[in-house]
Sequence to fold (166 residues):
Amino acid sequence: MKRIRGLLFSLIAGAAIGYAFLSNVRAGDEASPVFGVTIPSGYRTWQLVSVHSTKGYLKAIWGNPTALQAYLHKTLPFPDGTVLVKQTWRSVALNSVPAADISGPQDHIQVMVKNSKKYAKTGGWGFGEWVNGVVSGAAREQSCFPCHTQNAQVRGNDFVFTTYSP
Ligand code: HEC
Fold:
């Protein structure tokens, strides 16, 4: 019995390693558990919508071409296919220049994808977050939309806080 269990375990472990190897699964590739959102490849070549900071962190908001069209033509709601990525780094002091903070290691990535049918219950938006490349759990993901509906201004802007910085 023990031997069979051992054999079964080796088979399953081997299959899992083989799968990961063949499909080249990396931590950051994992889809968000509730919405099934992934980190879009190539988002670093998208246009910069704006930059934000909160104490200790610097953030860039990237928009895909669909997002940019909506921003530039000031059309709301954002159309299906819109993707917004918020990339966050820790801010670190540049010792050689007092009062200058620059981006340190990356902290987390958050993604919002518009699909009005699939995500009808959350204003048409699907959410995902990765901290150090590891996808956040379902509870954290459930907290995204409630905060993105927190005031009249964000509700009136299709649940998006960021406006375009020319
Ligand atoms: C406590 C409130 C709060 C929670 C929870 C929250 N957000 Fe946000 N989010 C904000 C605010 C405020 C901004 C704009 C300012 C900033 O970036 O710090 C923002 C900006 C964003 C942006 C850029 C587009 C926009 O709306 O401005 C994305 C993408 C985003 N959040 C995704 C997420 C995801 C994914 C989650 C859940 C894992 C999440 N947010 C949870 C408040 C929140």
In short: The CA atoms of residues 73 and 117 lie 23 Å apart. Residues 14-24 have pLDDT under 50 and may be disordered. Helices lie at 2-23, 65-72, 138-142, 144-147, 152-155.
